[in-house]
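Bit of a strange request maybe. I'm writing a small parser for structure token strings and I need a real example to test against, not something I typed by hand. Could someone generate the tokens for this chain?
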Amino acid sequence: MLAPLIATIEHTRNQTLELVADLSDEQIVRQPAPGTNHPAWVLGHLLFVDGNFLALLGGQPPRLEPNWKEVYGAGSTPVADQARYKPKQFYLDRMAKVHGQTLARLQSLTPADLAKPHPDPARRERFATLGHAVMLYGTWHEAYHAGQLSTWRRVLGLPAV
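Reply from user aminoacidic:
Good idea to test on real output. This should exercise your parser:
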């Protein structure tokens, strides 16, 4: 039952990685318009959410700088300042580690685990069960941001992936 979901999660991550593979550290902070989610922000945001996703599955999220949520969390505003962001490889290395741990946790889940209520009562209105949260964080959320990266590439005149 989980194999198709895990395969989709892996495919989605691979697509995100392809969208940034040819970008330099200088390029990843370019903004065609103020406030645009550039690749540095998207990668840092995905790392932040990946850590929360891993924690939701009972894993240990990565240690991130104290201001990580302020820079990459929902509602934060990306800026075209390379000094505010990490080099691309920083994001990619940490994302790979967290993603691997997440996939290992996902492979151990049972249908009964997925049917359990979301552990955070405040989130149950949107995500009634752990399975709902897995679907959102594992597929939709990343695909949403991959779409932003794809559009960003086209606006900057980069080739489609």
